[in-house]
Structures are given as structure tokens and as C-alpha cells.
Design brief:
- There is one protein chain.
- By secondary structure, this protein is of the alpha+beta class.
- It is about 40% helix and about 15% strand.
- The protein folds into two domains: about 90 residues, no CATH class; about 325 residues, Ribosomal Protein S5, domain 2, CATH 3.30.230.120.
- Strands 4, 5, 6, 7, 8 and 9 form a six-stranded mixed sheet that branches.
- The longest helix has 22 residues.
């Protein structure tokens, strides 16, 4: 990629098909208008059977340059390009010996891992406010990231590539068999290691697919998280998102290599294709963009350009929500499966239900912007009723229904923020929250006020 200050007349530029990585056109040091951002490389790689073509070209064009040979070759066979993740500056009339010496010093430091540095990124838990789970069915949703819970990944250069187990979520040593039983019962068997390893594998494949040549620099990756497990707060996708950000920072990749609107699709592909974790785009979109978002997953848009319409709302309009969750939940990812299959088979109840959920979003967005919490509470209750009708009480689970029931007894709206294990609510009368909190805690649930998380710095 050409540097912003570099004059295009200093070297040839190429037009590249960003999907196939096929080079479409080569312009030798253009003097006029040129829209391409990509410059010809300093070196070329030729297959053995291409070398005899040099002689043919020289015989036909004895006065032409090597750059013109590439244009000549392009008309005879396909040429593909691999994009280097950083600009190459040692070319042009203004480059001197000192520039080469400085570049060599930088390369030596990079070989030792000095230039890559240490990077830490966080991704936050999310709550689905309206419309979910229609995001997996070409619907609409409103969701928000929250400060209460987060996942964090850290990367730094090392001699060998290492993924560090988390002492709590990936234990390998126990005080006793009883400790093993207790920890396994509470934390399960699937910690964050599989998420990080799957992200690294998919990242390598995605860079190759996008024609990005990664430097051969190893690293160490570690993670931490305080997002409760399997309560539908997007804990898995938070780890994948934070890890992806670390890898992008480490290899100096930005929006030109991984456009922001495409990043949620990558995160979802890690979970679904590598780990078979079911879900829709909502969680990944809101964790990439952060803040309060209105999302439209229109089928036509997703099938044509692979992403929907994502609108960040003013955080000043964030509703005053509360959150409750089960301290010992079951696997939240399994609750989607039956409904998804019914939807694929054209079940009219599921199709109508998902359409009704999506329709709540437009009205809900106006209610949020107007701070009409009474109307928003009604819409949240309606969201839960539609979901309950589609899934049935057995699939929703006794504990989830008990949290909803306690909330309703105290005059609060309540619904699932995700796939199950937690409940968010809105009290039209804020004075009722203390008694509601006490009732939920007496029943054994963890309760707190939601702290909205505003967008931070952009994706690297």
C-alpha cells in the first residue's frame, strides 16, 4: 500500500480485485490521475515455467523496462498479488544510504520482537434490549455493551508461539478430587484456550484469503475475563473479539485490511465454523462497534454485501436497566437449535414470531430517543412474550422463568439479554428496584444495575 505522502510517479501502481487478489491492470509510474492505493513491489516471485517468457519479451521489445514486462505478462496469464501489511518506503528519488541503514536497524529489532511490542485489548459483555434473537433470522435488534463485565486479551512477542492457560477457566492442577468436581461443575470443561486457538487459526486463514503476507514473528497470548459463563452475555465472542484486536495490532493491520463492518462476520465464523457455537451477528457487531446500537440484518444486504445496517445511538439515551443472572447456569448456546431448524423448514409460527420481534425495534428506537421508559418497558415485555411462545417454557428453563416472574411481580419489565441464564429489566417506577433486587437475591440470583459502556478508540 502506497504511503500517504508518497508521489505516485515514483513507481508503478496496480489495480487489484480485492476478492480474488487477481491483478487487473499495471500502470508504470503514472503521471496523471490514479485511484489505486497499491504499488508494485520491490521484488517478484516467478514460477519456473514463466522464466522463458523473459526471452520472448526481450526479443519483441528490446528497449522496454522490466515494469513493462509485467504489463505484457498480465495480458498472457493471470497474476496474483500478496499484500504486505506495512508500506515499503525504500524507493524513489529521495531515498539515500542512511534510509537503508535505518531500515536495516528496524528490521533487526523486529526480528528480535522489539518492534511488535505488547498490546492489550478489551471487549465488553452486551445486553440485547429489543429484537433478539431475530438477528440470526434476518431481523432487527437494539443492543448495548456494558462496563459491568469484560474479556481482555494481551499479546507480546516471544521466541515461540504460546497460548497461556487461565488459572481459573483452564485449570490443570487441583487441590483434590473434590476441588476438581466443584470447579468443573461451576466452570465447565471449555475455557478460553479453544477460543484463542481457533481465533489464531482462522486469522491466519483469513489473512491468506485476503492476500496479506504476515511476518514470521511469534507471540504469547493470554486472556482474562469476568463475564459470567453461559448466561447469554456474549462471553465467548468477547474473548474472540479481544483476541482478534490483539492480532491486528501485533501485525499492524487496520481498517484497510479488515474493514470494521466485516469484522463481526469474522468473529462469528470463528465461533460457528471452528467451534460450532450457535448465534447471530448481533453480539459480534455490538462488541466490535461498542456502545448503544440499532442493527438491521436485512436479508438482501447480508446476502449481497455480507453485512447489515448498523447505527450507533447517542449514549445519553441509554435506558436505566438492571441485570440478574443465575450463579450456576446451563449451556446457553443450545437454546437456539430447535427454533433455527423450525425456521429453516418454514414453520409459520417461528417466521411470524421473528418478524414480530424485528418490528419492535423501530418503535423501541423512538422510545429510547424520547426517554419514554414506560413504552420501552411494554416493548420489552412483548419481546419476552413472543419469544416464550416460540421456544416454550421447557426450552426457556425454570430459573429463567422464575427471574421473569419475580420481576413482573414487582412491576418491572423483563426479558432475556441473550440466549438464556440472565435477565435484563426496566422499572418504570425506579423506587421499586430495591425491593425487586432483594427478592431476586433471596431467590439466589445475582443482581446489579447495568452500567452502559460507550465506544472507545476505533479498531486498530
Amino acid at each position: 500500500e502506497r504511503q500517504s505522502q508518497e508521489e505516485k510517479r515514483h513507481r508503478a501502481v496496480v489495480d487489484v480485485d480485492l476478492e480474488t487478489k487477481l491483478i487487473l491492470n499495471i500502470q508504470e509510474k503514472p503521471q496523471g490521475e490514479c485511484n489505486s492505493r497499491f504499488a508494485m513491489p520491490v521484488f517478484y516471485c516467478f514460477r519456473k515455467h514463466t522464466l522463458p517468457l523473459f526471452r520472448d519479451f526481450i526479443l519483441q521489445h528490446p528497449t522496454k523496462s522490466f515494469g513493462e514486462f509485467m504489463s505484457w505478462l498480465l495480458k498472457r496469464q493471470p497474476i496474483y498479488g500478496m499484500k504486505l501489511p506495512v508500506a515499503f518506503s525504500l524507493i524513489g528519488a529521495d531515498v539515500h544510504l542512511a534510509d537503508y541503514a535505518a531500515s536495516i536497524r528496524c528490521r533487526e529489532l523486529a526480528d528480535k520482537g522489539v518492534g511488535y511490542g505488547k498490546h492489550t485489548h478489551r471487549a465488553y459483555a452486551r445486553v440485547g434490549i429489543l429484537g433478539n434473537p431475530s438477528d440470526g433470522f434476518f431481523g432487527k435488534t437494539i443492543a448495548m455493551t456494558i462496563k459491568n463485565f469484560w474479556a481482555q486479551a494481551t499479546i507480546y512477542p516471544s521466541e515461540r508461539l504460546q497460548i497461556v492457560p487461565h488459572p481459573l477457566h483452564d485449570p490443570t492442577q487441583f487441590g483434590s478430587l473434590g476441588d476438581l468436581h466443584r470447579i468443573s461443575q461451576k466452570e465447565g470443561y471449555m475455557g478460553g484456550l479453544r477460543l484463542i486457538q481457533a481465533t489464531c487459526k482462522k486469522f491466519f486463514e483469513e489473512c491468506a484469503r485476503r492476500g496479506i503476507a504476515l511476518p514470521r514473528q511469534n507471540f504469547t497470548l493470554s486472556y482474562d475475563t469476568n463475564i459470567p459463563r453461559q448466561v447469554g452475555l456474549a462471553g465467548s465472542s468477547a474473548i474472540v473479539t479481544a483476541t482478534t484486536r490483539c492480532l491486528m495490532s501485533f501485525f499492524q493491520l487496520g481498517a484497510s485490511e479488515f474493514p470494521k463492518e466485516q469484522l463481526p462476520n469474522f468473529v462469528l465464523s470463528v465461533e460457528m465454523e471452528e467451534l460450532f457455537i450457535q448465534g447471530g451477528l448481533q453480539d459480534r457487531v455490538v462488541q466490535v462497534y461498542e456502545g448503544l446500537l440499532s442493527m438491521d440484518f436485512d436479508r438482501g444486504l447480508l446476502e449481497s454485501r455480507k453485512y447489515g445496517t448498523y447505527v450507533q445511538m447517542d449514549m445519553a439515551h441509554a435506558p436505566p436497566l438492571w441485570l440478574a443472572y443465575c450463579p450456576d447456569p446451563s449451556d446457553s448456546g443450545r437454546i437456539h437449535s430447535n427454533v433455527k431448524e423450525r425456521w429453516r423448514q418454514g414453520d409459520p409460527e417461528v417466521i411470524a414470531g421473528m418478524k414480530s420481534l424485528a418490528q419492535l425495534v423501530d418503535e423501541g428506537r423512538l422510545a429510547i430517543e424520547a426517554h419514554d421508559w414506560a413504552l420501552l418497558a411494554q416493548l420489552m415485555d412483548r419481546n419476552f412474550s413472543i419469544r416464550r411462545q416460540m421456544f416454550g417454557d421447557e426450552a426457556l428453563g425454570t430459573a429463567n422463568l422464575e427471574m421473569i416472574s419475580i420481576a413482573q411481580q414487582h412491576g418491572s419489565a423483563a426479558k432475556f439479554p441473550g440466549s438464556g441464564g440472565a435477565v435484563i429489566g426496566l422499572c418504570p417506577d425506579p423506587t421499586t428496584f430495591p425491593s425487586l433486587r432483594e427478592a431476586l437475591q433471596d431467590a439466589g440470583y445475582v443482581v446489579m444495575r447495568v452500567t452502559p459502556h460507550a465506544p472507545e478508540s476505533p479498531i486498530p
